[in-house]
Specification:
mainly alpha, Growth Hormone, Chain: A, 2 domains, 21 helices, 2 strands, about 70% helix, transmembrane, transmembrane helix, UNC93-like protein MFSD11, membrane, glycoprotein
């Protein structure tokens, strides 16, 4: 099976598993404020607060156990949350809400890294659209099942949520069939001719002027390359092979790097010599950075490889925090934050503010309307971003969200279901557009820091969700809608700035 076909199958299996798994959670979350208004809002605040807090350490865990097992382990806590609705016991319900926040941090960190890893750069929008189409269709399917069980069969909460729990458990089982991606694989490219000759799977030195590619070799691949080339018996043979490779490159007319330097064939260091200063051409504000490979003498000063001490768990965690804080306080993140805040506000409005004003029997039906446009909009937005760019998709999302706000405000205190459904339809499309937009921007802004980029995005939008879940217990729905309407315009301006500052 070729690589592209395998990636397509993994995308479909990955998306389908999330569709089945989230049927139970979305149905339970939509009815949270109908259990008890104060307890429901508090439970959602607790859920998204723990989610936000544990996001800070989730990349460290994800890198150690891999994206697949982050998803598998995190999913178990979602099942605990759904089970708490079968027989509502307040202490267990609140404990499950807190635990699912921890599970969500692991699951969504693994989710973002896994989705971006299986998606080539030219297909990130399409694959994100496919994923969101399946994933958000669980809103439609789950609430459709809930509405049918409540309104047609008149079943009890215990029976309804037992059925939903069993369905979600099937999705949890499917998680085990995903490919297990190691951290060292993320961002890897196909082995090159030189790599194949040397019998290694690490990257080949790049001979074009695209410094983005040159900068992407991981510390692991560098370390493996150095160790393999320290073998004295193979040194002379490797030198001949590299010289032959250089001749092939010259015959193909590949220039650029040859004009800047030549391969350094010193013992233990076969990295390309190039200009000491490189810059990320996709980011004009980026600092020049020096790319160096340690020499044998430098390595000897640190001790031989067998004697080299591994970083302690505390040291790796500190390093993880440093990487996260660099993203949090980077200039480019300032443009991204308004979009992430908007995603968080949509969650709190759709899953708490609006359902709290409706009859319990109408909540699943309204969530079906939300799920319909999420389902259709996710696929359309993915194609739109790949073909026409993020700016046009952002314009469309802003217009639709504004229409939804106007419709809800004009509804007033009436129970006109047509206007209510129209509002949910508009918010569904806007949510799908902004979710798709967020993944595309993560890969654009943080191509070498996918774990940290995903965590940053989830930290902001879920932190905002936690804040507004708490505030909406006290604020009127009109104030909530007006706040969202104003922020919608700010998010539009932010996406506009990202498009013209960081897109190639």
């Amino acid at each position: 099976m070729n690589k592209q076909r395998k990636q397509n199958l993994q995308t479909l299996l990955f998306s389908f598993s999330f569709c089945i798994f989230f049927i139970g959670f979305f149905s339970a979350q939509a009815l949270t404020t109908k259990v008890s208004k104060k307890i429901g809002f508090f439970a959602l605040t607790l859920l998204y607060s723990t989610f936000t807090f544990f996001l800070l350490i989730s990349p460290w865990i994800c890198k150690n156990i891999g994206p697949k097992y982050s998803i598998v382990f995190g999913g178990l806590f979602y099942l605990i949350f759904v089970s708490s609705y079968i027989k509502l016991i307040t202490w267990y319900y609140l404990l499950a809400s807190a635990l699912v926040g921890f599970g969500a941090a692991l699951l969504w960190c693994g989710n973002g890294v896994y989705l971006i890893w299986i998606s080539p750069s030219e297909k990130i929008g399409k694959n994100t659209g496919i994923f969101n189409t399946f994933y958000l269709s669980s809103v439609l399917i789950g609430n459709g099942i809930t509405s049918l069980l409540y309104n047609h069969y008149n079943l009890s909460d215990e029976t309804v949520f037992t059925v939903l729990l069993l369905i979600s458990a099937v999705g949890q089982i499917i998680f085990f069939f995903l490919d297990n991606i190691k951290s060292s694989q993320q961002g890897d490219e196909e082995p090159t001719e030189t790599g194949k000759i040397l019998g290694n799977n690490h990257k080949k030195p790049s001979y074009n002027t695209n410094t983005n590619t040159n900068n992407e070799s991981s510390d692991t691949s560098r370390h493996n390359e150095e160790e393999s080339l320290l073998d004295e018996d193979n040194y002379n043979e490797n030198t001949k092979l590299i010289n032959g490779e250089k001749e092939k490159i010259k015959e193909r007319g590949v220039g650029g790097e040859e004009e800047k330097g030549e391969l350094n064939l010193n013992r233990g260091n076969l990295s390309p010599k190039k200009s000491n200063r490189t810059q990320n051409i996709a980011d004009p504000d980026s600092q020049f950075e020096e790319e160096k490979y340690p020499t044998p003498d430098e390595r000897n000063n640190k001790g031989s490889d067998p004697e080299r001490k591994e970083m302690s768990l505390l040291d790796t965690l500190k390093e993880q925090f440093r990487s996260l804080f660099k993203i949090f306080f980077s200039f480019r993140s300032l443009f991204f934050i308004p979009i992430l805040v908007l995603v968080g506000m949509i969650q709190s409005i759709v899953y708490a503010l609006l359902p709290s004003t409706l009859l319990k029997k109408n909540v699943p039906n309204c969530m079906i309307a939300f799920g319909i446009t999420n389902f259709i909009g996710s696929f359309l937005n993915g194609l739109l971003i790949d073909k026409l760019g993020i700016f046009l998709d952002n314009i469309l999302s802003t217009i639709v969200a504004t229409i939804g706000c106007i419709v809800w405000i004009s509804k007033g205190d009436s129970e006109n279901l047509i206007l209510v459904f129209t509002t949910f339809l508009c918010f569904g499309f806007s949510d799908s557009a902004n979710q798709t937009l967020a993944y595309s921007i993560i890969k654009l802004l943080y191509p070498k820091k996918l774990h940290e980029g995903v965590v940053f995005a989830k930290f902001v939008n879920n932190g905002i969700s936690a804040i507004f879940f708490f505030l909406f217990a006290y604020l009127s729905q009109a104030i909530g809608i007006y706040i969202f309407l104003g922020w919608n315009i700010l998010a539009f301006i932010s996406a506009f700035m990202i498009k013209f500052k960081y897109s190639n």
